[in-house]
Amino acid sequence: MSSTRKPVVVYGASGYTGRLVCEYLREYGVPFVAAGRSADKLHAAMKANVPGIETADYEVVEVQHGTEALTELFRGASVVLNTVGPFAKFGPEVVQACLAAGCHYTDTTGEQDWLITLDQAWGANFEAAGLLLSPGLAQMYTTGEIAAQPCLETPGLDTLDIAVFWGGSPTIASTQTILVNAATSKAFHLQQNRYVEWQPDAGLYSLAIPGQHEMALALPWGGTWHPVWFRKDPRVANVKVLGGVFNKPLMLGVPKIVEAALKATEGMNEEDRYAELAQTAASVMNAMPPRVAADRGDAEELTERELKILRLLKAGLGNRELAQSLCLSEATVKWHLHNIFAKLGVKNRTSALARAQEISLL
Ligand SMILES: NC(=O)c1ccc[n+]([C@@H]2O[C@H](COP(=O)([O-])OP(=O)(O)OC[C@H]3O[C@@H](n4cnc5c(N)ncnc54)[C@H](OP(=O)(O)O)[C@@H]3O)[C@@H](O)[C@H]2O)c1
Predict the structure, then answer these.
(1) How many angstroms separate the alpha carbon of residue 201 from the centre of ligand 1?
(2) Is pLDDT at 268 greater than 80 in this prediction?
(3) Is the Cβ atom of 350 under 6 angstroms away from ligand 1?
(4) Predicted confidence (pLDDT) per residue in 145-187, tens digit
(5) Which of 37, 139, 277, 285 most suits a substitution to test ligand 1, by most atoms within 8 Å of the C-beta?
(6) b/e map of 184-202 (b: 16 or more CB within 10 Å)?
(7) Domains, the chain, ranges and CATH?
(8) pTM above 0.85?
(9) Which ligand 1 atom is nearest residue 176's CA?
């Protein structure tokens, strides 16, 4: 395997998150390498899950999960987007390879212990090399960090008390990562700029969330990465983060699942423990959430007839054939097309088809 000329490498591109990253790189016209441990899986994932992939400037590269092979691949790239988690387990080789190859490192972690490891073991080296070390570019917990920024603009506020509540369901890998993290790592909050451990057996916390009538149940979820991010921020001395979902039975079940997993893996070596936890996670969550479509705007409003016309457009029918097929006049077909283009925010049928595909209407 040789070094790449593409500026971005997506490592783990066959996965749920990796494909989404590829989708946006395609949309923004950024050339990329879709890398992972199986070329077949990568090709299949690009084809089936990245709308418009045929217009992307990309290549698929199969690579072994080891520092040497990854370094060789990363040479020539600027940025690596790592989506192979749990990161505390699979991340070290990738970070080391980035440093060796002179690439900026990003990932989608939510694991606090991984952030602490990165800070302590690699932070200074990346800084000395003039490289960015930016883990955690993911939904959990970027929104909390964004919300914290305007609060910190008020002088004198030095305490962040963050509640993260989310909808939808986690992916299989996220469930696995959450369980492995909960069962094998300590969770910290920040108190006067020092890490202080959350009480491991405290169970669920009750939070009053503005705008909600019901008390919310919450957990520290391994501490989250905010205490690590903000530890060196001169404005911040204390950070506590709790989070959860508005689903009482689910929240009540989480501590029980973790407790049972801890009991079942007591005394196991690291590898056996990981395998057992992965299996437990798979039994808790064995289906991927649906891909959330891009903002559909007015496209939600497409009528059944308009959707039918879109499907016929995709089959290559011209205006006259459309009219015949739908028993309409050509003028009426044009009127429908005009409305469809307006709802999709496009000007012609090629763009309409691309847009419809992008937002999973076709
Ligand atoms: N903080 C957040 O908000 C957030 C959001 C999204 C994801 N995440 C985290 O990001 C990670 C990925 O999640 P996902 O749902 O996208 O997972 P996924 O769909 O299972 O994808 C995982 C990727 O990692 C690869 N992989 C797994 N084990 C590997 C190994 N031993 N060597 C090399 N590659 C390996 C897989 O390759 P194959 O296809 O060949 O199996 C796949 O490409 C998880 O840790 C998840 O918790 C966090």
Answers:
(1) 29
(2) yes
(3) no
(4) 999 999 999 999 999 999 998 876 778 888 888 888 888 889 9
(5) 37
(6) bbebbbbeebebeebeeee
(7) 8-134 (3.40.50.720), 139-284 (3.30.360.10), 297-358 (1.10.10.10)
(8) no
(9) 47
